[in-house]
Fold each of these.
Amino acid sequence: MVNRKDLDPEKSPGAAFGQRLRMLRDERGWTQDELGQRMGYSGTHVSAVETGRRSPTTHFSHSADKVFGTGDLLERQGRAVRHTALLEGFPEYVGFEGRAVELRLFQIGIVPGLLQTPEYAEAITMGAVRRGAITELQAEERLTLLARRQESLRRDPVPLIYAVLDESCIRRVVGGPDVMAAQLDQLKEFAALPSSVLQLAPYDLGERRAFDLPVTLLILADRSHIAYAESAQQGRLERDTRYVQPMMTAYHQLQAEALSQAASVAMIEQLRKGSP
């Protein structure tokens, strides 16, 4: 079959679910559209679940079990997917992130994952474990995925990355003084790269700060734009130009209001030396 994506069930619970769904479908000789008709979903939706771009909802898993006559097999496997440490919508975003030619990041409170040191990332993740928000296994999944995402930024050609960090990202100490010092050093190294721009949105920006929540904007090779934003419960991917373009405009306004890269690095250096 042309353009049939290989599935690795060891990659994640979502990939394992997708591989089983495809196997059951192939055994019956059904296309994705044919399975979708039987389940009450589109073939595109079935494809997204099979390839891990969408998580199987409870309704989707129940419908699949009913169609295949598998009891609650798929629902139990789907429950494992939904209990993963990754927010709904995030796996689909990661696929686009790995192909983007330009990334624009805005973050509040913590340094964005793509710019985190391993020690900083581990401190954030283990904090979630101690709070009972995720399990140790989920923490390992989260850190493994983050390492793969960071490695993908070294692809050729290297994507352009613009990062605007709220001042709180560098003021909030994560993992203790040594971990935070290394993280600040890494931000300075990031700013020195020819393919990146780092700016800080200082506290005194006040109401002129364009966003109140973290936002990521991607530009793909075909110049299409994608926006991704998260709440505490889920991530939302937006590709409709009517909604993405105003966010891109707001990001440019934020860049204009934020400190220059030179001033941002100077603030980081002052904090690194212990100055207020």
Note: Residues 90-116+145-272 form a domain with the Endonuclease; Chain A fold (CATH 3.30.870.10).
Amino acid sequence: MISKRILIFGFFLLTSLAFYAQRDQVEYLPTFDNRKIHYGFYLGLNKNDFKLNLRESNITNADIIVEAAAGFNVGLVADLRLHKNLSLRLEPGLVSNTKKIYFNHLATPQDSVREIGSTYLHVPLVFKFSTDRYKNIRPYLLAGVSYDYNFSSNERNQDDNSAGQFRMKTHNFMYEVGIGIDVYLYFFKFSPSIRGVFAMNNEIKYDDDANSQWTAPINYMGTRGVFLTFAFE
């Protein structure tokens, strides 16, 4: 399950920042949003797991679960203003996390657990729909797609799970939706956001054996996650 703690923390953070920013009567960076292009960077946390769909197979009583883990993300921001309330953002960065998959229908520890440590080049292209500015805050919605290059992928490895290697695809595609708030400060704009990230393609690389105890029961396995991001622009 995707952690609810990140969602709750992020919601209260956005609410608190909005309340704090409205208290200040001085309007900071009044012409910031008139720029055609501006740049920044971001830091953040993520909680990722896999959505699993199982299928009928020759493996009886297949029982597979995923244990999600927290990770971090860091990257750059390029924002192109298309309209006073709409911009297009390119946000290339690195995302790192680790997940464990438990194959509970297998008896021995060396067979029943696979740890997947992943580092991705994450390249989102998202539309940012903003409200009109009110004092020093400006809420917004995010929606778009992203490409992930998995540096930790072993897709081309000749070994599979029979040799202890759980293989994942190198190239993956996601869609993203989220909410956030721009907070205008004296020297820069601070933009925290919460977004959901969901895979569009099947990320698993199936074992060579069509009746593999590890991959035969899996019809689909794709990333799903929550990103809590802090952008500085």
Note: The mean pLDDT is 86.
